[in-house]
Design brief:
136 residues; mainly alpha; three-stranded antiparallel beta sheet; 3 strands; microtubule binding; SKA1_MBD_sf
Length: 136
């Protein structure tokens, strides 16, 4: 019996937590009632979406089932010249893979993440892509 070869490990990006200093630098109007923990919990949730997406993108075509093949094709279609070397997710990935609500509060959290330099938005072709900004 042939042992199934494991694919080489896939690099899965993840967003870093914000620090208390980061949070304190956020203007009051952006925060509203959002707490420091709300933001880092949101990062945990968003990281699930990045993990799932890049796990699928890291698979060989022969490993993909029908659902994941469709996802793979969708992911590829969302890439543009502006997303080269960027790790990003879109609203659909967020809805599908994590418990992060893209409601008013959720959008405010995204604004805070942009403000704190954890994420940036790449817009194009009518879609907003949420790309991870690597913190060094």
């Amino acid at each position: 019996s042939k042992k199934q070869k494991m694919s080489k490990s896939v690099y899965v990006p993840s967003m870093e937590y914000i620090t208390v200093d980061d949070f304190d630098s956020v203007p009051k109007y952006m925060k509203g009632r959002i707490t420091y923990n709300n933001v880092n919990n949101a990062i945990d949730e968003l990281n699930k979406a990045y993990k799932e997406k890049y796990k699928i993108l890291g698979m060989k075509p022969s490993q993909l089932n029908d659902v994941n093949r469709k996802r793979y094709e969708t992911y590829k279609q969302l890439e543009t010249k502006d997303t080269v070397a960027e790790y990003f997710i879109v609203d659909g990935d967020v809805k599908e893979f994590c418990n992060f609500k893209l409601d008013r509060v959720g959008r405010n959290v995204l604004t805070i993440l942009r403000h704190c330099g954890r994420m940036k938005e790449i817009r194009g072709n009518g879609r907003t892509r949420y790309a991870i900004v690597h913190v060094y």
